[in-house]
Amino acid sequence: MKKITVFIILLCSILSLEGFAQNEKKERVPLKHGAHQIGKRTDAAMQRWREYGLGQFIHWGVYAIPGGQWNGKTSGGAAEWFRSSGLITNEEYDNLYKQFNPADFDAVRWAKQAKQMGAKYVIFTTKHHDGFCMWPSKYTDYTIANTPYKKDIVKQIVDAYAAEGIDVYLYFSIIDWSHTGYVSGGNINSPEIKKAFQAGEREIFNPFKTKEQEKKYEDFKSFTRNQLLELLDNYPTIKGLWFDGSWDVAWVKNAPWVDSVGLELRAKHPGLIIGSRFRSDEYGNRHVDANGDLIDDYDQRFERNLPNNLAEVNDNDWDCVMTIPENQWGYHRDWTLTYVKTAYDLIEMTLQANSLDGNFVINFGPDGKGNMRPEENRIAKSVGDWMAKYGEAVYGAHHSILEKQDWGISTQKGDEIYLAVFNKPMSNILKVKVPRAKTRGNVYVIENATFLSTGKSATINDGGRNKAGAIFYDIPIPAELQNSGEAFVIKVKLKEVPQGEKGAYQQAIT
Ligand code: FHN
Fold first, then answer.
1. pTM over 0.90
2. Which of 329, 360, 364 maximizes ligand 1 atoms within 8 Å of its Cβ, making it the mutation to test the pocket?
3. Whose CA is closest to 157, among 87, 109, 223?
4. Is the torsion defined by CA of 324, 362, 129, 207 positive or negative?
5. Has residue 36 been placed in a domain?
6. What CATH number is associated with residue 485?
7. In 90-113, which positions are buried (b, 16+ CB within 10 angstroms) versus exposed (e)?
8. Same domain flag for 148 and 250
9. pLDDT digits (tens, 9 = 90+) for 55-113
10. Among the atoms of ligand 1, which is closest to the Cα of residue 128?
11. How many angstroms separate the CA atoms of 490 and 453, rounded?
12. How many whole angstroms from 353 Cα to the centroid of ligand 1?
C-alpha cells in the first residue's frame, strides 16, 4: 500500500513538473515577415558557401581618392565615411567622381592575388553609403560611366574572379546619400527607438518631416529595387548579395515591402544567398526575428568581432568580415593610426571562425589608382603561403570534438582533426587532450598523426589520462617546426576503441 502511495505521489509530481515546463514554453509570436525558414538552408548553393572558409572583401569607391586626407588634414574615422568627416564639403566630395580614373586597375591581377591568398569568394562594393555606383546603373548618373574611367568595374571584377574560380558576392548599401529621396530617421539599433518599435509605437519615430519627403522615399524604394534587379540582370553569375546600412528607421518601417523585394530577388535568381542584414521583421527586429529565428541565410552580426564559442552562433551559418587596421574598410593613406593586424593574426582568426562553423573574410581597400597597398600585398602573400600548406584545415573543415586547448585551435572534417598550433609549448611537446567517446565503455585514441607541412608522421606518446576518462597524448614537435615562427598543423585521425584496450585510469594513491 505504502509503495502504491509513493508511486502515485511521484507520478503526480512528474506530471505537474511537465505541465509547468509546458507553461514555461514561450508562445511563438505570429509573424508575417520573420524568418521564412527555420534552421539552416540545406541546398547545394548554401552547402558551397559553408565550405568557403576564407573570403576577400573589397571596399572601393571614390573615397579612395582622398584616402582619409584633405587639405593637409587627416580623418581618424573610417576612410569610406570621408564624406561625413567634416574635412571635405559635400559639394567637393560629390564631385570627386570627375577625377576617378584608376589607371592601374587590373581586375585580373586582383583576382590572381585573391586566388593565391586562398580566398574562395569575394564581396565587392558595388555602391557604398555615398551612393556612387561602380557599375553603369541606368537609374542614376552618379556612376562609373560618368567618370573619366568610364568602364564597368563590377563586370571586370565578376569576370576576373569567376575566371579564377572565386565566387562573387555583391555588396550593396541601402544607405544612399546621393539620392534625394533617401531619409535616415535614426538607427533602429538605438535602445530608445527599438523599444518604441517593439511596443508598437512605430509612428512616434516617423522619419518623414513632410508629406513630400514621404513621397520621395517611395521613389527611393523603387530606385533601390530597380538597382537590385539590375545587378542580378547584369551579373547573373553572382552567388549572392551582401547588404549593409539597413539599420535606418525608414527602411525598417518598410519591412513588409523589403520582404517582398527579397522574395522577388530570390525568385529571379534561384540559390541567391542573402545575409541577415537586409531586412527586419514587422517589429523592427534585425538579424533574428521576434521568435529568435535567424532572418535569411546567415548571420551577419559578427563584423570585426569573432564569436568565442559555439553557443554564441546558435547553430546558424555566419560570416565575420574583418579589417586589417582597426576600422578602415576603404583606402586610408595613414595606417599608423591604429593597430594593423599581421598575417599571423588573420590566419588565427580564420581558424577560429572555421572552428566555430563560420567563414572569415579579409578586407582590402585599394587606392584611387587601383592598387592594393604594399602592406595588403604582403599580408595576402603570407596568408596565401600559409593556406597553400595548411588550407586543408580550413576548407570544408568545421567545429571539432576536441575542446579548445592552450596550444591553439582545432577543426574537423569527417574523422580527421586538424590541430593548428599557434602557441607552441616551450617543451616542444604538444599535449593533446582527446575527449571520451559518446558510446559508453569506449574511448577515442589517436590512430595516426601527420605534420601537414612535411607529410611526415608524428610520434604519438602516451600522455596519461584524467579522472573523467579523457586521454592525453604527447606529440614531440620536430626540429624544423620548433623555430619556424609560423603556426603549423598536425592532422590526426581518431579511432573509437573499447576502453579496455587503453587500460583503466589509475587514481593517485596519496
Ligand atoms: O558603415 C559600414 C562600413 O563603412 C563598412 O562598409 C562595413 C563593412 O561591413 N559596414 C558598415 C558598418 O557596419
1. yes
2. 329
3. 109
4. negative
5. no
6. 2.60.40.1180
7. eeebbebbeebebeebebeebbbb
8. yes
9. 999 999 999 999 999 999 999 999 999 999 999 999 999 999 999 999 999 999 999 99
10. 6
11. 8
12. 19
